[in-house]
Specification:
Length: 492
């Protein structure tokens, strides 16, 4: 016991163990674990420092305040289920704020050496988890090259199963590793830059990779450092090699993605199967809803007879603000047009939005009955008319089409629609003034800030990243570290 205690103390002197455990736990895709991680980190660090809280941007408490005003003064729906949705939405923003607080504590209480070692252990653990995913697939596919297997269960979609510590969707793993790659490039830790890029590429999250390559090309123009440019060039060669030799099918997909055309991609989210009214006998359960196992990466399907089955509300008075036909236009483009037209046609919503969970958000999706997590399967179902007739309609329409349409570019998920659709122009102002401007003013290395922000801004157009409770915290963490400019180990 004494030896174990001594070993733990030695490790604790080199690595921030509570924060490492926190990072590992919030990487999970389970909301319950993310809340548990918060409880754990505050239990391990019970001292609450108001001085650190005062140093944080005010965006999170202000967006909660705006949502509360909208709920009380404009929304007009005080039903128990809407209270529940509102409460969970406020809890989500509170979790984001608490995560940011812990990131700031981690940076302020540790030296750069200890910070770097902690992050190093984290990314290496994730890399090992990704390699485990890959070799597990190799065993099941009976080949060392499952990306080349066709026909088969894997092939070009093998990356959907390489999730590391993050779970599905696999592109969360790719997003986080791309941010770490930019951080290590900035810190001139070039081998870690290459390792995190390799792990990112292994997931073959193609749109993520396109964004990352574009950001690297821009970074090369402004890096002011030939060594960085050389490693960026090496990184791009690695990327091309992965696409040409490891998974050429994904290279063909990339060409189609650039043209924003329909492409073949395995599903990465739970599938909703719309059953025709005459086929009721194929569906079980009192609400004619059934969660069943599926061989896809999602592991779940949700069967239902009609879109309104779970809500039993009259949505006839709500408009669809852009025609939904994803065989002709990407679902994300339709979602953005719906948001713009919604604000144009609803003056009351222009300034404060439709309200939290009422237009476009992961929260709205989770309460819609389409989420297959055990927690939200048990909670009451809710969908506001604005969401039901617009972004949810895109999702449900996509799920009635063949698998090749089940792509990230057709999912309506994007932060633009969430911010403007649910919080209006005032929400956008709060975001840019009390979040973006806050970090910009305190960033000692503007090039790094702009590259990281460009990457994250692009990813925000792909999903509701704030509600995943890990990507944005890691973004904030890197900017807090960069602002800690009085340590010798920081780049000049």
């Amino acid at each position: 016991m004494a030896a174990i205690s001594k070993l733990y103390k030695q490790l604790a002197d080199r690595v921030d163990i509570p924060f490492l455990l926190f990072l590992i736990t919030i990487s999970s895709n389970k909301v319950v674990l993310k809340v548990a991680a918060l409880v754990l980190i505050f239990a391990l660090r019970p001292k609450f420092e108001i001085a650190i809280l005062k140093k944080l941007p005010l965006f999170y408490p202000l967006i909660i305040g705006l949502a509360t005003l909208q709920f009380l003064l404009v929304g007009g729906d005080f039903s128990s289920i809407h209270f529940l949705v509102f409460g969970v939405g406020c809890l989500y923003w509170t979790i984001c704020y608490a995560y940011m607080y812990q990131a700031r504590v981690f940076v302020e209480e540790n030296t750069h050496e200890k910070i770097d070692r902690t992050l190093l252990v984290y990314i290496l653990l994730n890399a090992v988890a990704c390699l485990y995913n890959y070799f597990d697939i190799c065993v099941k596919a009976e080949t060392l090259f499952p990306f080349l297997q066709f026909p088969g269960n894997y092939g070009a979609s093998t990356g959907d199963y390489i999730c590391g510590l993050f779970g599905v969707p696999s592109y969360m793993n790719a997003i986080v590793n791309s941010l770490f790659a930019l951080y290590f490039l900035h810190r001139k830790k070039m081998w870690l830059f290459l390792i995190t890029t390799f792990v990112m590429l292994l997931s073959f999250a193609n749109i993520i990779n396109l964004v990352f390559v574009f950001v690297l090309l821009v970074y090369a123009l402004f890096a002011g450092d030939n060594r960085k440019r050389a490693f960026i060039g090496l990184n791009l060669l690695l990327c091309f090699a992965m696409y040409f030799y490891v998974s050429p099918d994904n290279y063909n997909y990339i060409k189609k993605t650039i043209g924003l055309s329909v492409h073949e991609e395995r599903e990465i989210m739970p599938e909703v199967v719309m059953v025709k009214p005459g086929a009721v006998d194929t569906v079980e359960g009192p609400l004619a809803v059934k969660y069943v196992n599926d061989s896809s990466a999602a592991k779940q399907k949700i069967r239902m007879i009609d879109r309104n089955l779970l809500f039993h509300r009259d949505y006839s008075t709500y408009n669809t603000y852009a025609p939904v036909d994803i065989t002709k236009s990407p679902g994300k483009k339709i979602a953005i047009l719906q948001t713009i037209n919604f604000l144009r046609n609803n003056k009351d919503a222009l300034f404060v939005g439709a309200g939290i969970g009422n237009f476009s958000s992961r929260l709205a999706y989770q309460f819609s009955g389409r989420d297959s997590s055990r927690l939200f399967m048990k909670l009451p179902k809710y969908a506001h008319g604005y969401y039901f007739q617009n972004n949810l309609l895109i999702y449900d329409s996509m799920r009635q089409l063949p698998t090749e349409y089940h792509s990230i570019k057709h999912f309506p998920n994007n932060f633009f629609s969430q911010l403007l659709g649910e919080y209006g122009l005032l929400g956008a102002i709060l975001f840019f003034v009390f979040y973006v401007a806050y970090f910009y003013k305190r960033a000692p290395h503007k090039t790094f800030f702009f590259m990281l922000a460009l990457c994250v801004a692009s990813y925000l157009m792909l999903d509701y990243l704030f509600e995943f409770f890990n990507v944005m915290m890691i973004f904030e963490l890197f900017l807090f570290i960069d602002a800690k400019a009085d340590e010798k180990s920081m780049v000049s």
